[in-house]
Write a structure and sequence with these properties.
alpha/beta, 4 helices, single chain
Length: 150
């Protein structure tokens, strides 16, 4: 369940991550909702999971967003190199539904990228929405502690 609490210049988000799924394009279509949110791609490194990429899905929803990124049967001009790079890893994913505003997704993405430093997101080219001075995110969900932070 997603919650937001804005207090003055601070915002407090609470989001619920799905369980971790091994990526398979057929399984992903079955488990992903057609709702907006964030997809978190990870891959196993020894006993830990390493963050590869966070990406937001607003209009298309999570199911179509993941399909556009990783399914080679879907034409997505300009993303071929990223698709090949990501599919070169053993992929796992989880997702969080965030259906309030694209600006909330932007704030949470900014915090997640700063916190986990995924390999394929660049924090220097990503900004928050500039609506709040401080952003706080509480994550809930299974296996969150097993994710390696760089």
């Amino acid at each position: 369940m997603f919650k937001k609490d804005a207090r003055g210049e601070d915002v407090y988000y609470s989001l619920e991550w799905s369980r971790l799924f091994e990526y398979d394009r057929f399984n992903a279509r079955r488990v992903m909702p057609e709702l907006p949110g964030i997809v978190w791609l990870l891959h196993p490194v020894k006993k830990d999971m390493e963050s590869l990429l966070f990406f937001a899905c607003w209009r298309d929803g999570l199911r179509v967003g993941l399909r556009k990124l990783l399914d080679d049967s879907f034409i997505n001009i300009g993303k071929e190199q990223m698709r090949e790079t990501l599919l070169g890893h053993e992929l796992h994913f989880r997702f969080a539904v965030i259906d309030t505003s694209p600006l909330d997704i932007q704030d949470i993405m900014y915090w997640m990228i700063k916190e986990y430093k995924p390999i394929y997101n660049d924090i220097t080219s990503f900004t928050d929405s500039k609506r709040y001075m401080n952003i706080f995110v509480k994550e809930n969900g299974p296996d969150i502690a097993d994710v390696k932070r760089r």
